[in-house]
Design a protein that fits this description.
By secondary structure, this protein is mainly alpha-helical. It has ten helices and three strands; from the N terminus they run E-H-H-E-H-H-H-E-H-H-H-H-H. A three-stranded mixed beta sheet has the order 2-1-3.
Length: about 300
């Protein structure tokens, strides 16, 4: 470090370089999407809490997925909405690093929660006689706590490696939030170790879990095809297809964002992928589970009926 270099105390989030009228249009749309995200995931959480028929391991993990989605969107979207209205889109160093940590923690946790949900479906369909033992409430609690702990620990490793780097300018983050790859570009030091750890973590929480999910669903599909009753096959397909839709959206976007070659995806395209990853996935998850799940729709009707009788 030379003497004329200064430490950066705040960053400027460049966001989307658009005209003021287009920014106002995006503000309105993103506000609507954010409200739908909070409302949809909040309804899922409320139904699971209020309806005793949904007090099962599958919906226990679904409630954790809803919590992650709410937290995930709330970490990035409010700041993005404020920046769409302000001309000076600054963020201090500590809040920026905090945003990076929470973003990575929630992303890793969601990956692991989706894997645990696939395990739940695998045991329920392929080994139904062992389901009550393998997916006991104690086992479910351990799996949920482990997912949150591992996600937070991995994020802490990323942030710890970022904090060891000097940031001495420039201080413009070419993103709408403090996304880790964009922040690393501002470091005035070698970031090879950071890039290697990000790639290794992606293999651990993306490629590895995706292989486990696809392998378990291959066996689930084989088990479903052996079911003799059409109603049983339909119910199993409905539940599993909803989960596979969520897995495809989440893992597909994340793998393209963090593991595809840089030259094929310019920064503006990465912003769009991050936007889909941060806002649209959390909004679509409750819609996928509610629209394709008769148990959720039935719980919604029962809760409304109870409210009318009170």
């Amino acid at each position: 470090m030379t003497e004329n270099q200064t430490w950066v105390t705040e960053f400027i989030l460049l966001g989307f370089p658009l005209s003021p009228s287009m920014q106002m249009l995006l503000f309105g749309h993103f506000c609507l999407f954010y409200v739908l995200t909070l409302l949809g995931n909040g309804v899922i959480l409320g139904l699971i809490l209020l309806d005793s028929r949904l007090h099962t391991p599958m919906y226990f993990f679904l409630s954790h997925l809803a919590i992650v989605d709410i937290s995930y969107a709330s970490n990035n979207v409010p700041k993005m909405l404020v920046n769409l209205l302000n001309k000076k889109n600054t963020i201090s160093f500590v809040p920026c690093i905090t945003q990076t940590f929470l973003y990575m923690a929630f992303a890793h946790t969601e990956c692991l929660i989706l894997v645990v949900m696939s395990l739940d479906r695998y045991v329920a369909i392929c080994h139904p006689l062992c389901y009550s033992v393998v997916m006991s409430w104690r086992a479910c609690a351990v799996q949920a706590v482990t997912s949150w702990a591992c996600g937070s620990l991995l994020a802490l490793v990323h942030v710890g490696l970022v904090l060891r780097l000097p940031f001495c300018g420039p201080h413009e983050v070419n993103h709408f939030f403090c996304e880790i790859l964009s922040v690393l570009k501002l470091a005035c030091a070698d970031t090879t170790l950071n890039q290697a750890v990000i790639f290794a973590a992606s293999m651990f929480v993306l490629v590895g879990p995706l292989c486990l999910v696809l392998g378990s669903y291959a066996r689930i599909l084989a088990a479903i095809l052996r079911i003799q009753f059409a109603e049983g096959r339909r119910k199993a397909f409905s539940t599993c297809s909803s989960h596979l839709c969520v897995v495809g959206l989440f893992f597909g976007t994340a793998i393209v964002l963090y593991m595809a070659p840089k030259s094929r995806h310019p920064e503006e395209q990465q912003k769009i992928l991050s936007l889909f990853y941060s806002l649209f996935n959390p909004m679509l998850n409750p819609l996928i589970y509610s629209l394709r799940n008769k148990e959720v729709k039935g719980a919604f009707r029962r809760v409304l009926w109870k409210e009318r009788l009170m």
